[in-house]
Amino acid sequence: MKEIHFVEREHVQNLTQVCPERDEWESGDWSVRREKAFELIDRELYLHRGQKQPAFFAGIIIGFYCIDTQGASRMKERIVFRVRRVRELEGKVTPQEGWGNEQKTVY
Fold first, then answer.
1. Residues 5 and 32: beta-carbon distance below 8 Å
2. Rounded to the nearest 5 degrees, what angle is found at the Cα of 104, between the Cα atoms of 45 and 32?
């Protein structure tokens, strides 16, 4: 199963609960291509405090939207994922291989 892992530093707030009744959250903004974001719908998303740390948050991606951010004198598209939290997935540690730019995709 395809899954994506991100490192979310404690000083950055990229996680917001948007629907408590359904335990739905938004996480972003991440540097992910729009095509890849489409492929990740219905797949697992994991958030870690560091690459060697267990996931403190995990869930199934149920959608996403794009936002534009200003970076290095040009606009850059970023992705915000909508996730249904699955607490049973939390605590997962992923091997060190494959991390890049604070994210890792597992196929």
1. no
2. 75
Contact 69, 79 (CB under 8 A): no
Write a three-state SS string for 78-94: EEEEEEEECHHHCCCCC
Distance between CA atoms of residues 42 and 59, nearest Å: 9
Q: Which residue ranges make up each domain of the chain?
A: 3-106
pTM of the model: 0.90
One digit per residue, the tens of pLDDT, for the chain of length 107 reads 699 999 987 766 789 999 999 999 999 889 999 999 999 999 999 999 999 999 999 999 999 999 987 766 677 889 999 999 999 999 999 998 999 888 999 98
